[in-house]
């Protein structure tokens, strides 16, 4: 079935059987909580039993904290009983094992350095996680990532490979692959991830879920060791657009110490049903610079008419990236140039922030280079070697990318501009992501005969980390039983429009009923 996935029958009057609790969308589970038909403690127990059975197959969680979660769930039971329940009271979630900290909960960053030698207990919650906990969400544990989130794959020597639940042995994508796999396999009600080159949106594609990166700093970073940086974003991962909107709105509650934070939270849940009637949508099958497999193009091309059926004008768009960057590079631009920009940015952060931050605590991240993923060591050394002129060149490239997209948006006084742009989330089918089995997995090194960087060159997501524009990845359809991811992008600040379009797509091309219940 390539074009349309079955719909999910939403919240029924009668309570679900215990074994069916994990399969409920967030909206339904919270409704059952409020009706008193399901207790949070029952939900935590149901998810715990499923994690115990399913997680060994897909490796989504690297740490679980079920006893702690059950204590919190019992307290949530009491809040529902006495009428003091909060917005997400008792909702079982998970947090990524990167800089998505939980105070006092061990964090390994996907690294053997922190798994084998140093026990790092974060001194505080990441602000966005704190917002979810303040709303009553309960963490079941930490989800897998690659070492320090450096590639579009979730695999590390510390914890091994993470699989998409759609086909065991094929990678979930990354670097928030543990979160995406946990959501897709019904191991949590919802979850979150961080995104510096697509790490929320990339794994959403092979896992068949929703991964939303809001506009830059709509969700404050609010965690050391990284300073405020234009690459770094945070976002929700959920099985439904509604669930992602609810989490994103709550995570965006302002944090006053952040000088670049927004003054008010997002309101995507409230605007989800705005529709796309009258909008002008451009669609691209390659984002100008990516070699994309024909099968990926065909799924998106076959389904893009859904927006037209919903009342939007849809037409092909040429972005003009190569033309914009030609004066800087002096030659046609390709995807490896964008990957190089990412590596320069992350290398400088790794060398200047991670090494120094943990070094000040007596933790030698580089104590034994043989323990580090070779690519991480390469990026750290690159960061130490970069000159100010190298960083300046990256800034010039990134400004050209921002200018290119800014010129396309209708909100920027462009009468012939677009409200949204749609295209592939990743350039290959999930079938091209077989796990190596030892934590060394990377993506394909070529697509359509074009050599690419296997770390990130197949991920059509990094452009929006440089522009700061909102972008959501969701299933466009499927090919040979595996999901194909599509990305919807809007102008910076137009998050509500992006999520409303995602909701239209969800209604027109539903996917919930196709998510794998039995592995």
Overall average pLDDT: 94
Task: Report the uncertain regions.
Answer: 1-8
Please state the structural category: alpha/beta
**Helicity range:** 25-40%
Largest sheet: 11 strands, mixed
Query: At the fourth CATH level, what is the homologous superfamily?
Result: Amidase signature (AS) domain
Output the CATH class name: Alpha Beta
3D shape: globular
Specify Rg, calculated over alpha carbons: 21 Å
Read across the widest sheet, the strand sequence of neighbours is 1-3-2-6-8-7-14-15-11-9-10
The CATH architecture comes to Alpha-Beta Complex
Number of strands: 15
Question: Could you say how many structural domains there are in total?
Answer: 1
CA(first)-CA(last) distance: 19 Å
User: How many H/I helices?
Assistant: 16
Strand content is 5-15%
What is the CATH topology classification name?
Answer: Amidase signature (AS) enzymes
């Amino acid at each position: 079935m390539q074009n349309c996935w079955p719909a999910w029958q939403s919240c029924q009057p009668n309570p679900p059987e215990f074994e069916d609790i994990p399969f409920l969308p967030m909206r339904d589970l919270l409704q059952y909580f409020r009706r008193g038909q399901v207790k949070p403690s029952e939900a935590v127990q149901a998810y715990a039993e499923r994690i115990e059975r399913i997680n060994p197959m897909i490796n989504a969680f690297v740490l679980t904290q079920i006893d702690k979660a059950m204590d919190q769930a019992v307290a949530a039971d009491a809040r529902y009983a006495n009428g003091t329940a909060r917005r997400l009271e008792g909702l079982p979630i998970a947090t990524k094992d990167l800089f998505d900290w939980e105070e006092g909960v061990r964090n390994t960053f996907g690294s053997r350095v922190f798994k084998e030698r140093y026990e790092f207990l974060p001194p505080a919650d990441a602000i966005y996680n704190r917002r979810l906990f303040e709303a009553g969400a309960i963490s079941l544990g930490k989800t897998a990532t690659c070492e320090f989130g450096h590639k579009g794959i979730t695999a590390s020597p510390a914890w091994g490979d993470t699989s998409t639940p759609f086909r065991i042995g094929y990678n979930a994508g990354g670097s928030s692959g543990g979160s995406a796999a946990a959501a897709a396999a019904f191991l949590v009600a919802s979850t979150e991830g961080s995104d510096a080159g697509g790490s929320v949106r990339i794994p959403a594609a092979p896992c068949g879920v929703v991964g939303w990166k809001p506009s830059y700093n709509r969700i404050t970073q609010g965690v050391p060791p990284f300073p405020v940086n234009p690459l770094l974003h945070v976002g929700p991962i959920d099985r439904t657009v509604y669930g992602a909107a609810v989490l994103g709105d709550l995570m965006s509650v302002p944090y006053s110490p952040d000088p670049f934070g927004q003054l008010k939270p997002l309101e995507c849940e409230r605007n989800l049903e705005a529709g796309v009637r009258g909008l002008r949508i451009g669609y691209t099958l390659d984002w100008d610079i990516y070699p994309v497999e024909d099968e990926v193009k065909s799924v998106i091309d076959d389904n893009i008419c859904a927006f037209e059926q919903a009342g939007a004008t849809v037409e092909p768009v040429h972005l003009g990236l190569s033309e914009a960057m030609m004066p800087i590079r002096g030659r046609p631009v390709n995807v490896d140039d964008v990957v190089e920009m990412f590596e320069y940015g992350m290398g400088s952060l790794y060398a200047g922030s991670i090494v120094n931050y943990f070094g000040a605590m007596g933790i030698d991240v580089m104590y034994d280079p043989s323990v580090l993923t070779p690519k991480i060591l390469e990026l750290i050394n690159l960061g130490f070697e970069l000159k100010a002129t190298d960083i300046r060149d990256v800034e010039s490239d990134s400004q050209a990318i921002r200018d290119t997209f800014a010129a396309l948006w209708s909100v920027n006084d462009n009468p012939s501009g677009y409200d949204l742009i749609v295209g592939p989330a990743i350039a290959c089918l999930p079938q091209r992501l077989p796990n190596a089995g030892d934590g060394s997995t990377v993506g394909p090194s070529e697509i359509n005969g074009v050599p690419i960087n296997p770390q990130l060159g197949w991920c059509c997501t990094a452009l929006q980390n440089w522009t700061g524009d909102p972008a959501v990845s969701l299933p466009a359809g499927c090919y040979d039983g595996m999901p194909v991811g599509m990305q919807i992008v809007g102008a910076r600040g137009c998050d509500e429009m992006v999520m409303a379009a995602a909701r239209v797509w969800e209604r027109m091309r539903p996917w919930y009923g196709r998510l794998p219940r039995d592995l």
